[in-house]
């Protein structure tokens, strides 16, 4: 039972599988993206897809990439990876004042919803909640790096009891003004005016000798939480619509919104998922098969790459390999006759050429190839 299972991740898996099983005979949710369109048009279609109402998000997902020959589960993984990437880095949509639209802003592990009134009025945080819940239900990536204070409110706890840090305030000008109240140093006339102007704009009293600490905490709370209550309400509504809310309130130990450090990918996490080539894995009828000596050498290069790569590079590798950056299943490695590394995301298979005789050449080509997964992955 997901409510009582001692392992939070296993409990999350049991919960998601139960939702998907209940809806397995429902109308499939069709996701389509034309890679020949501009990035802005692609992002507009994604947003329109998740603005639909009365959708059963637990139903089977059918995905298609137009302009790319890729098919199958790899395309589905690509879609969910693209959703979370857009939520984190921004949608390539110009709303008149920027080339991209970011729904979240701030530093890693201190991300908060944007305070843009346009995004609130457009229900884009409801869209974000649906995207987050939909990806979670289908085993996809999760949004990492949110402020712990924001997560505290998102999972149903009282906004007034959230522990807010100064780093959670994304506006550095406001942050510097609030920091003036942290301590006992006498404020200059200009500093006092800056603090007073901020207090008046948020209907708070001006600074005195007795309310300084209280005012520091109230200004910080309003800068991080108070200005974002409507956004958080929309996100929660999206999570409820995708049926993830019950898990959130029943199992607060499930990290639906992990810290950036907790969501980093390390060699120790990735290596157990890999099925390496063996002496007996050769197929006499396969023209691409390589001699055993080449398999051993390239396997050694690949292990060295994994053991020395940064977390962002490992995530790029896994995304190139299986379609998203979450290691899963049986991730096979094949050594073949070929020019460049390629993958079959649907079968979770990475194919590495056996012609390399130096690690530096192997590393250079592999880094170049894994950086292309955002542009589709069909064989041309």
TrEMBL record:
Keywords: Transferase, Ubl conjugation pathway
SUPFAM superfamilies: Hect, E3 ligase catalytic domain
Ranges of residues in domain HECT: 110-379
GO molecular function: ubiquitin-protein transferase activity
Domain of life the protein comes from: Eukaryota
Protein name listed in UniProt: HECT domain-containing protein
């Amino acid at each position: 039972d997901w409510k009582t299972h001692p392992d939070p991740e296993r409990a999350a898996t049991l919960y998601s599988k139960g939702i998907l099983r209940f809806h397995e005979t429902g109308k499939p949710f069709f996701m389509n993206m034309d890679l020949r369109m501009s990035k802005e048009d692609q992002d507009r279609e994604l947003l329109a897809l998740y603005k639909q109402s009365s959708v059963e998000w637990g139903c089977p997902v059918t995905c298609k990439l137009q302009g790319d020959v890729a098919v199958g589960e790899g395309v589905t993984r690509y879609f969910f990876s693209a959703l979370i990437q857009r939520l984190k880095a921004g949608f390539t949509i110009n709303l008149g004042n920027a080339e991209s639209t970011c729904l979240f802003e701030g530093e890693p592990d201190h991300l908060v919803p944007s305070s843009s009134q346009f995004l609130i009025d457009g229900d884009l945080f409801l869209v974000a909640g649906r995207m987050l819940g939909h990806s979670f239900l289908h085993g996809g990536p999760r949004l990492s790096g949110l402020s712990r204070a924001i997560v505290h409110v998102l999972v149903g706890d009282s906004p007034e009891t959230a522990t807010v840090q100064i780093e959670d305030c994304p506006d550095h000008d406001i942050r510097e003004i609030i920091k003036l109240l942290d301590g006992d140093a006498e404020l200059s006339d200009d500093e006092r005016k800056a603090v007073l102007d901020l207090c008046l704009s948020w209907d708070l009293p001006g600074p005195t000798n007795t309310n300084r600490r209280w005012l520091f905490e109230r200004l910080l709370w309003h800068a991080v939480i108070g200005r974002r209550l409507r956004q958080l309400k929309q996100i929660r509504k999206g999570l409820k619509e995708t049926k993830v809310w019950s898990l959130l309130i029943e199992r607060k130990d499930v990290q639906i919104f992990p810290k950036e450090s907790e969501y980093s990918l390390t060699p120790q996490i990735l290596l157990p998922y890999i099925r390496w080539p063996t002496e007996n894995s050769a197929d006499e009828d396969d023209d691409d098969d390589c001699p055993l000596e080449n398999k051993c050498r390239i396997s050694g290069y690949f292990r060295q790459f994994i053991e020395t790569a940064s977390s962002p590079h490992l995530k790029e590798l896994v995304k190139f390999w299986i379609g998203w950056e979450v290691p899963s299943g049986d991730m096979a490695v094949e050594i073949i006759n070929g020019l460049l590394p390629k993958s079959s995301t649907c079968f979770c298979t990475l194919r590495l050429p056996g012609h390399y005789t130096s690690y530096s050449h192997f590393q250079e080509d592999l880094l170049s190839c894994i950086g292309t997964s955002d542009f589709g992955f069909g064989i041309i």
